[in-house]
Specification:
There is one protein chain. The chain is built from four helices and nine strands, in the order βαββββαββαβαβ. The strands form three sheets. The chain has a four-stranded antiparallel sheet with strand order 7-6-8-9. Strand 6 and strand 7 form a beta hairpin. The longest helix has 18 residues.
């Protein structure tokens, strides 16, 4: 099952890598994630979940909660699973200090502490597409995951003219 097969209200978690993933890493991540999802449960009931890798950078896990909601314990298990992936592959999927931009269908990763200077230098502008990894549903992912910088929280760094 693909994430797109889940309802628009399916819950999503987006984990952004701190670097572009290799083909072998992508295969390994998807294999392990699918194995995890096959046994992922809340209070003994199997969750209807799916995962995908996007732009060689984002691991997205989604769960349909119309029948069974993900519990705190099940969410904790998914985060521990992601932490194990980080350790095994020497990547960081939980670092919120890196901003991903879409540039001609390629991903550009920039440390948050350099964004203001990149904007001042004209290397990043208000029209650049960034990824809003705080979306919480598949509908939001479809409509509000990729947004212009001017519509994101980063707009505070734009010049006022």
């Amino acid at each position: 099952m693909k994430i797109s097969d889940l309802s628009p209200e399916a819950r999503v978690w987006i984990y952004q890598s701190d670097r572009i993933l290799s083909e072998s890493e992508k295969v390994l991540i998807l294999e392990r994630t699918n194995r995890f999802l096959d046994q992922w449960s809340a209070h003994g009931d199997r969750l209807k979940a799916s995962a995908g890798l996007y732009y060689n950078t984002f691991l997205v896990i989604s769960v349909e909660e119309t029948e069974i909601e993900a519990s705190g314990c099940s969410i904790d298990k998914s985060v521990e699973f992601v932490r194990q992936l980080e350790r095994d592959l020497n990547i960081n999927l939980l670092n919120r200090e890196i901003v991903a931009f879409l540039n001609n269908d390629a991903i550009r990763l920039e440390p948050l502490n350099l964004i203001k200077d990149q904007i001042k230098a004209g290397k990043i502008n208000k029209e650049n597409i960034i990824f809003n990894n705080l979306v919480t549903t598949r509908r939001e992912m479809d409509t509000n995951w990729k947004i212009p910088l001017k519509e994101s929280w980063l707009k505070k760094y734009l010049p006022l003219h």
